[in-house]
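queue> pop job 88
queue> type: inverse folding (structure -> sequence)
queue> payload:
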């Protein structure tokens, strides 16, 4: 697929400005966002009804706050870019990035872009989705039922928070890496999961009255996104994750939701992944949507041309990533961490 489109001419910068984040038009207090499971304060500003957050050190990236969980697609890049260009150079981010909402895959803007890989399950009914599953996946869902897994939707209350905390604090290592949510308090768990609560569902899996799995759905109009899917390692043999995902599709189909999003499908050059296999076996496919990168500074222009905004897993060869992942897993196994 092509990696970039032609760059659109940026709004002119009119003179030098000394207001930046402090003006009434775009003032906003710094806000905290979750980065690798930890709440971190970052600079923010208001621009035409949107909150723009900045992250990064040597390369400052600006993005719409919680864009991937919003109901409406971000369709005001020009207006927001004008506000960003009015910032003093020393306060201006280097790159402004935004994307299009699934399932919109045809580029609508003439800014520099790359194709972003999204894991999407498309269906008109639960039966349609079910019939597309491999035999082994259907067997795992039935196995969960036969082994006593009880599925239900649950209110966001203290009982659910305690259950999530128990799941997260079961073990510090998951899938060969340090688990970023291990050791969190009940207050931290509550804060992590209270977002978009008015348009969310929590689906739980219980075994003999104990919460052993949870899935959080966030509804975004005609699509839904999985914010969390987690289950206890000790009950893996009962396949709670398979059952939770099947229940999520059933709930979505009953609401008329036609697309279920489960994060990314491909993570750069990381070719092999248990999560990728899990998604594929549950009828998630790879949908490419445009992600735009608009340079706002000279450094931003260089970074966009050379794609220095990419993460390491997007730049390093697949064999290097696999070797590093294997070594990390062996290190945790040897040290018992």
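queue> result:
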């Amino acid at each position: 697929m092509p990696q970039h489109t032609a760059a659109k001419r940026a709004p002119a910068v009119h003179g030098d400005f000394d207001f930046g984040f402090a003006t009434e038009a775009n003032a906003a207090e710094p806000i905290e966002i979750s980065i690798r499971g930890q709440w971190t304060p970052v600079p923010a500003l208001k621009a035409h009804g949107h909150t723009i957050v900045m992250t990064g050190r040597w390369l400052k990236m600006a993005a719409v706050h919680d864009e991937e969980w919003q109901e409406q697609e971000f369709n005001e890049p020009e207006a927001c870019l004008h506000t960003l260009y009015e910032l003093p150079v020393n306060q201006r981010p280097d790159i402004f990035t935004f994307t299009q909402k699934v399932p919109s895959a045809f580029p609508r803007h003439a800014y520099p872009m790359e194709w972003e890989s999204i894991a999407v399950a498309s269906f008109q009914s639960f039966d349609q989705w079910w019939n597309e599953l491999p035999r082994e996946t259907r067997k795992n869902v039935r196995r969960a039922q036969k082994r006593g897994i009880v599925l239900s939707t649950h209110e966001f209350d203290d009982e659910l928070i305690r259950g999530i905390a128990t799941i997260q604090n079961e073990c510090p290592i998951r899938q060969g890496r340090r688990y970023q949510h291990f050791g969190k308090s009940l207050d931290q768990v509550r804060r992590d999961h209270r977002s978009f609560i008015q348009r969310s569902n929590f689906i739980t899996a219980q075994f003999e009255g104990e919460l052993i799995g949870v899935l959080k759905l966030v509804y975004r109009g005609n699509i839904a996104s999985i914010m969390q899917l987690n289950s206890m390692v000790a009950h893996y043999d009962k396949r709670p994750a398979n059952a939770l995902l099947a229940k999520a599709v059933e709930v979505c189909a009953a609401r008329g939701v036609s697309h279920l999003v489960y994060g990314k499908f491909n993570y750069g050059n990381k070719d092999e992944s248990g999560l990728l296999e899990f998604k594929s076996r549950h009828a998630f496919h790879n949908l490419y949507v445009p992600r735009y990168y608009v340079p706002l500074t000279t450094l931003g222009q260089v970074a966009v041309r050379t794609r220095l905004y990419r993460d390491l897993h997007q730049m390093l060869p697949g064999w290097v990533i696999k070797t590093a992942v294997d070594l990390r897993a062996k290190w945790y196994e040897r040290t018992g961490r």
